[in-house]
């Protein structure tokens, strides 16, 4: 009943394999696994991308620092060149055109300092000395020399030395830089401070072709030798000229930053305002717009020779391509693939569960059908068992009562109560009495089997002396043995050997074994009984020397109604139930029963029981 209830509940609780709920149970876990997997993949991808971006930003920052240091360092070198020129004038030696040329060539500026346009000397001229100055320079072999632009000014300056003296630098020969406001402001600041000063953005007079570049100049004042220049007024009174250098911005920056041209875009503005008017240099002025990106951008301020430059650094497409994105792509691909595999695995597991669910439903239905059949069969078996028990009880009762009366009446007749019997009649009464006894034994054996099957066979195990019990059984069987002219002898005993058993039932087993041994022994033979202890078991063996049991019958000895030959029943009598009942009794005691037999030599039956504690 409990099994049936559990099965019914389980079958009710199981959802149908093709229901919407089941289909959602198949899809939702796999979709959830895919979403979670892709989410984790995206997180790993973002982390890898962030790490790459951080490394790229650090590399870009390193490039900015290196570029800035390169610009500042190079301009410091140029300032040192100007100081060397001032030092030449401070020696007191007359600085001629030849001496100046030798001085600049000795510096090897075009080789050691690429990007510089030249190193020059610009002298200051009072208006009253202008004519003499022009005449002196013409006398050096420059008949076309003049101070340009023409016009009257309070003071003039003229570029008289500029090395290398050739090419586009010839256009600057005789130029008055004080005539232009941006240059004049830088020269005035240099004069008043005594420091190297850079001008703002200008167009150099050297720009004589179509490739015009922005430019600037650096000035360092030269004061009259021996003059005291501790203040601004003294410096203004003592100024005699300037050592200076002009710079074409594109040439200068490409000479300084040539190695960075491909990976960083650089724009330099004069001053703090980033406008086209202030733009001095653009490294990618001729490149396509998409070659410069805004992935990385930084604006720096550089103070050079009392002049502020604003420098904008931007990454290029080449820089972006140089970032190794392999780890990101691998993380994305591997994670996506793993997510798909996980989703497929979850889907397969869910499908397997669905199939298992369908199989479970089918098996549950089959189980319920089988259970119903089993229940019907059990009820039928129980009804049959009850009917059999009732039948056996009824038959036993109906047979026992008349059998008792018959046996009693036969006993009285055999005892002469009705008078002396003729020999032939007396023989008939004895046969009837024996048959009545056999029938009574059969009824008792059938009742015992019925009780064993119904679990109603009562046992009352107690510690008993097995040796005494065996002797009691032998004494009780002596009269039975004399019927077959067979005796019993105990060949081995074990005094004090105790087993825990039901004495009445063990006597019943021993009686079966002793009676069988007598029946199947030849007249005049002796049945041997041995009692012994074998380890934790007590053993009783009953040996006869009769005809033995055929080998083909050994497997049926303990079956019900088993007889080696039906003729044995006619010859020796018996119900064929004794050994089956004996085995059931011994098994119920936890013991064992067996036999050894040789055809024509006899049979040994033995039982083993556990010793009493």
Can you name the CATH architecture of the domain at 92-255? 2-Layer Sandwich
Class based on secondary structure composition and strand pairing = alpha+beta
Strand order of the largest sheet: 2-1-5-4-3
Text of the CATH class of the domain at 92-255 = Alpha Beta
What oligomeric state is this?
single chain
What is the CATH H-level superfamily of the domain at 92-255?
CHASE domain
Write the layout of secondary structure elements.
Elements: H1 2-13, H2 20-90, H3 97-107, H4 109-112, E1 119-125, H5 130-139, E2 156-163, H6 181-193, E3 197-198, E4 215-223, H7 232-238, E5 239-248, H8 249-257, E6 264-270, E7 279-282, E8 292-304, E9 307-316, H9 317-321, H10 326-414, H11 423-454, E10 462-465, H12 466-482, E11 487-492, E12 498-501, H13 503-519, E13 526-534, E14 537-544, H14 566-572, H15 578-588, E15 592-598, E16 602-610
Parallel strand pairs: 11-13
Antiparallel strand pairs: 1-2, 1-5, 3-4, 4-5, 6-7, 6-9, 8-9, 10-12, 13-14, 14-16, 15-16
What does this structure look like?
Helix 1 packs antiparallel against helix 10 and helix 12 runs parallel beside helix 13. The chain is rod-shaped. Among the domains are: 164 residues, CHASE domain (Beta-Lactamase), CATH 3.30.450.350; 153 residues, Heat Shock Protein 90 (2-Layer Sandwich). The protein has a five-stranded antiparallel beta sheet, sandwiched between helices. Strands 11-13-14-16-15 form a five-stranded mixed beta sheet. The chain has a four-stranded antiparallel beta sheet with strand order 7-6-9-8. The chain contains 15 helices and 16 strands. It is of the alpha+beta class. The longest helix is centred in the middle third of the chain and has 89 residues.
């Amino acid at each position: 009943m409990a099994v049936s209830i559990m099965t019914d509940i389980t079958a009710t609780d199981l959802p149908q394999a093709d229901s919407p709920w089941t289909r959602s149970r198949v899809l939702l876990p796999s979709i959830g696994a895919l979403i979670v997997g892709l989410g984790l993949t995206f997180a790993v991808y973002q982390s890898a991308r962030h790490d790459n971006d951080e490394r790229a930003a650090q590399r870009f920052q390193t490039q900015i620092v290196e570029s800035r240091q390169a610009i500042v360092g190079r301009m410091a070198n140029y300032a040192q060149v100007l100081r060397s020129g001032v030092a030449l004038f401070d020696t007191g030696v007359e600085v001629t055109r030849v001496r100046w040329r030798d001085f600049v060539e000795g510096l090897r500026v075009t080789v050691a300092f690429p990007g510089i346009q030249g190193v020059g000397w610009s002298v200051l001229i009072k208006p009253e000395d202008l004519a003499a100055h022009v005449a002196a320079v013409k006398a050096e072999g420059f008949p076309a020399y003049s101070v340009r632009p023409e016009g009257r000014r309070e003071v003039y300056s003229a570029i008289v030395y500029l090395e290398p003296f050739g090419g586009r630098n010839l256009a600057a020969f005789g130029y008055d830089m004080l005539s232009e406001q941006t240059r004049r402001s830088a020269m005035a600041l240099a004069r008043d401070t005594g420091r190297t000063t850079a001008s703002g953005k200008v167009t150099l007079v050297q720009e004589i072709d179509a490739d015009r570049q922005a430019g600037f100049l650096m000035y360092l004042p030269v004061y009259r030798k021996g003059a005291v220049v501790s203040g601004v007024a003294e410096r203004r009174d003592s100024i005699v000229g300037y050592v200076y250098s002009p710079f074409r911005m594109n040439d200068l920056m490409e000479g300084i930053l040539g190695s960075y041209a491909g990976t960083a875009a650089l724009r330099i503005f004069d001053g703090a305002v980033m406008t086209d008017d202030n733009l001095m240099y653009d490294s990618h002025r001729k490149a396509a717009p998409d070659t410069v990106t805004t992935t990385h951008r930084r604006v720096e301020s550089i103070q050079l020779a009392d002049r502020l430059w604003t420098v904008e650094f931007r990454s290029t497409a080449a820089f972006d391509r140089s970032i190794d994105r392999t780890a990101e792509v691998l993380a994305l691909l591997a994670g996506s693939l793993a997510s798909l595999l996980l989703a497929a695995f979850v889907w397969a597991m869910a499908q397997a569960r669905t199939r298992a669910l369908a199989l479970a439903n089918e098996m549950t239905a089959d189980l319920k059908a089988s259970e119903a059949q089993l229940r019907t069969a059990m009820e039928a078996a129980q009804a049959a068992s009850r009917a059999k028990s009732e039948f056996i009880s009824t038959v036993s009762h109906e047979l026992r009562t008349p059998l008792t009366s018959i046996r009693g009446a036969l006993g009285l007749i055999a005892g002469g109560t009705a008078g002396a019997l003729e020999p032939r009649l007396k023989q008939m009464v004895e046969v009837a009495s024996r048959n009545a006894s056999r029938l009574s034994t059969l009824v008792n054996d059938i009742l015992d089997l019925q009780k064993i099957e119904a679990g109603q066979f009562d046992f009352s195990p107690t510690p008993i002396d097995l040796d005494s019990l065996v002797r009691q059984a032998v004494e009780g069987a002596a009269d039975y043995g004399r019927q077959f002219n067979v005796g019993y002898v105990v060949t081995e005993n074990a005094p004090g050997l105790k087993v825990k058993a039901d004495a009445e039932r063990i006597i019943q087993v021993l009686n079966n074994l002793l009676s069988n041994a007598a029946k199947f022994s030849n007249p005049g033979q002796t049945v041997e009984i041995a009692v012994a202890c074998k380890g934790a078991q007590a053993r009783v063996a009953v040996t006869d020397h009769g005809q033995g049991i055929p080998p083909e019958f050994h497997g049926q000895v303990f079956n019900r109604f088993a007889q080696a030959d039906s003729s044995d029943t006619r010859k020796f009598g018996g119900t064929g139930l004794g050994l089956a009942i004996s085995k059931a009794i011994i098994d119920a005691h936890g013991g064992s029963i067996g036999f050894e037999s040789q055809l024509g030599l006899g049979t040994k039956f033995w039982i083993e029981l556990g010793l009493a504690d």
